[in-house]
Design the sequence.
């Protein structure tokens, strides 16, 4: 009897083991099937995503090239008498509007374009704008822009929203001549420098080796580089391309731009109107707030730069030194409303 019970127990135990093995094998097969399905789905989605990106890039290139060709043909001014100033003015206004629409199309498309293709397209836009201005100036002559030195405003008006004027010792005319050649403002201490749209529009600007300066660039540059600056206030109008900041300490920078990239910077606040996410690297103790500087030509310059004043990603920042996805980088913060600068 005892032997029969033992045999029955052994058989039951064997059946349980076999059942467990079957369940284990079934689970493994199910997991393998799910893994294969998941991998196939991921590969399919990646493939589809790549196709969509390639299709968008291809559409962009065709439309962009067609528009460049159209604007270039319009510059021939076919059928317009060289002496008809009114007709020429309206014609060039139409050309500038076409360029602005193309710049906006580029800004909206840049997120899915390869970096090299984006750089080439922006350079084409810059060169085309230079060609438009040159052709317009040749066909519709106007008085050359001249700079007038003014007495520096008193300190109690320093923080008004009006653009500060420049004193006689600031060398503004020399700066303007350099900027027209694509040079930089460099090596200045405790100076106030103001350049307007006649000087900065569609230019690549560089600010470097500045200490304790106030710089106001009231126009729509193509690109701005800020290098090795300390204790400075820098206010820039809408930039159609990127703003690059490197080795900046204890500064306040206000700008509108397509992209902001910050390196080796600390104790600095940014007031932004930016289309894409800002990028920081090797940077600490920086704050962000929305762009709040205003001046009479701001709306026109936003259009000229192809920026949308209503779309602002000022509080979206990617820190390339902070890889944790579940927590915010400690290297940047949003500036509290009560601590934001309102007067420039």
Sequence:
């Amino acid at each position: 009897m005892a032997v029969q019970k033992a045999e029955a127990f052994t058989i039951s135990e064997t059946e349980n083991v076999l059942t467990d093995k079957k369940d284990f094998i079934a689970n493994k097969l199910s997991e393998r099937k799910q893994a294969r399905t998941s991998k196939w789905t991921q590969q399919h989605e990646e493939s589809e995503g790549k196709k969509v990106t390639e299709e968008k890039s291809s559409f962009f290139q065709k439309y962009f090239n067609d528009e460049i060709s159209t604007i270039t043909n319009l510059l021939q001014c076919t059928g317009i008498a060289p002496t008809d100033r009114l007709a020429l003015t309206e014609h060039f206004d139409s050309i500038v509007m076409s360029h602005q629409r193309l710049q906006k199309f580029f800004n909206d498309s840049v997120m899915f374009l390869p970096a090299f293709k984006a750089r080439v397209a922006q350079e084409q836009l810059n060169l085309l704008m230079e060609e438009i201005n040159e052709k317009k100036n040749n066909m519709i002559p106007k008085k050359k822009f001249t700079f007038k030195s003014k007495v520096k405003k008193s300190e109690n008006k320093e923080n008004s929203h009006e653009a500060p004027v420049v004193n006689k010792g600031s060398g503004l005319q020399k700066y303007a001549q350099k900027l027209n050649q694509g040079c930089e403002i460099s090596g200045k201490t405790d100076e106030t420098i103001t350049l307007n749209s006649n000087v900065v529009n569609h230019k690549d600007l560089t600010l470097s080796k500045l200490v304790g300066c106030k710089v106001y660039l009231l126009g729509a540059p193509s690109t701005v580089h800020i290098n090795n600056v300390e204790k400075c206030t820098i206010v820039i109008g809408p930039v159609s391309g990127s703003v690059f900041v490197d080795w900046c300490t204890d500064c306040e920078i206000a700008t509108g731009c397509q992209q902001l990239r910050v390196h080796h910077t600390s104790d600095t606040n940014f007031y932004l109107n930016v289309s894409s996410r800002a990028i920081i690297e090797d940077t600490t103790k920086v704050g962000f707030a929305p762009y709040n500087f205003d001046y009479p030509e701001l709306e026109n310059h936003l259009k000229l730069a192809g920026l949308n004043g209503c779309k602002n990603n000022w509080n979206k920042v990617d820190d390339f030194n902070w890889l944790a996805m579940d927590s915010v980088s400690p290297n940047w913060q949003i500036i509290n409303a009560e601590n934001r600068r309102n007067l420039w």
